[in-house]
Amino acid sequence: MRIPDWTPEAHPQPAELVNAIRARRGGELINLDKALLWSEPLARGWNVYLKAVRSELPTSLRLRELAICTVALLTGAQYEYHHHAPDFLKAGGTQAELDALQCVVKGDARRCTDDPALGELEQLVVRYAAQMTLDVKVEDAVFDALRRHFDTTQLVELTSSIATYNMVARFLVALGVTPEGEAA
C-alpha cells in the first residue's frame, strides 16, 4: 500500500467505529479498512453505505457481483476482483462465467460478451458495467434492453452497485491497496 496500514496507535479512532467495521467484516479488518480508517468521517460513511450496497439490496446478488467483477477487471483493481470473484461464485455464478469476463481486458470490453458461458442477461450486465466504467455514458440500446429485464428499482440498484464499485476501484488502485497476505 502506498500509505501505512492504519493502527490505533498511529491514528486513534473511536472504538465504536472500529468495532462496527469489524462486525461488518466478520471480526477482522481488511486492508481496505486499514486505508479508510485514516479518516473517521470517510470510514464511518463508507461502512454504512457499502453495507447497504453489499447486503441490503434485493436486486440479484449474482448479477451485481458479475458487474462488480467487470468493473474490477476494467480498472485493474486486483483487490476488488480478489474479494468479489468468490462472492460471485457463492451467489450462484460459475467459474466459466468468470473466465468469460477475461474478454473485457483483452478486447473491446463494451462489446466483448459473445462467450457462450454468459447468457443474454449476463452479457447485457457486462456491457452495461463496461460502458459505465469506460465511457460513463451508456448507449440507449443497452439501457433499453436492461429495462426489459429489470424494474426501475432494480435498475437503480444495479447502477448504484456499478457506480459504487467504480469509486472503490479508484480508491484501491490509487492507494495501491493489495489483497491481504500479498506484498504491495
Write the layout of secondary structure elements.
Elements: H1 15-25, H2 31-36, H3 40-55, H4 61-75, H5 78-90, H6 95-101, H7 103-106, H8 120-134, H9 140-147, H10 152-175
Helix pairs in contact: 1-3, 4-5, 4-8, 4-10, 8-9
Task: Describe, in short, the structure shown.
The longest helix is centred in the C-terminal third of the chain and has 24 residues, at 152-175.
Note the total helix count: 10
Total separate domains: 2
CATH architecture of the largest domain, by name, is: Up-down Bundle
Q: Which residues sit in consecutive blocks of at least 5 with pLDDT less than 50?
A: none
How would you describe the shape?
Answer: globular
Q: Would you write up a description of this structure?
A:
65% of the residues lie in helices and 0% in strands. It is mostly helical and 184 residues long. The protein has 2 domains: 15-55, no CATH class; 61-173, Up-down Bundle (AhpD-like). α1 (15-25) runs parallel beside α3 (40-55) and α4 packs antiparallel against α5. The longest helix has 24 residues, at 152-175. The protein is globular. The relative contact order is 0.15. The mean pLDDT is 94. This is Carboxymuconolactone decarboxylase family protein. InterPro entries: AhpD-like (IPR029032), CMD-like (IPR003779). Residues 42-101 form the Carboxymuconolactone decarboxylase-like domain. It comes from Ottowia flava.
